Amino acid sequence: MHLTVLAVGRARGTPSAALTADYLRRLPWPAKVVEIREQSERPDGKRREGEALLAALPAGAFVVALDLAGKTYDSRAFATQIAGWRDRGVRELSFIVGGADGLDKSVLDRADARLSLGPMTWPHLLVRAMLAEQLYRATTLLTGHPYHR
Hints:
Elements: E1 2-8, H1 15-26, E2 31-36, H2 45-56, E3 62-71, H3 75-87, E4 92-97, H4 105-110, E5 113-115, H5 124-143
Parallel strand pairs: 1-2, 1-4, 3-4, 3-5
Helix pairs in contact: 1-5, 3-5
């Protein structure tokens, strides 16, 4: 399986980017972050971000949009969900993280699943690190590694 995190905003050189990269490096499959320029200062910014995110999706990707209205999981259930996608033959798994204004309807409509990290509001740069850590935690749960304790 290949993993892509598509995210609005630039994180390069920040502590959150380093943390995200560290967790993604630990995954047992290739993983990368693709950054999309934030457009929130424009009246049509959310739409433009959505178009850019959709254009950057890998071909044939199974898309998980991070959305407040998405499904919440505890870590074990998230691991089980990832294993289910893997076992159903998902080869390209893409998570989409929106900007300050959230995700455009076009992205939510394209998503195969929606994921919520809970009802609190998180900075979109921090969400990347949180997601990467949970992906790594899921792989440790699936392999019986003690990290998850």
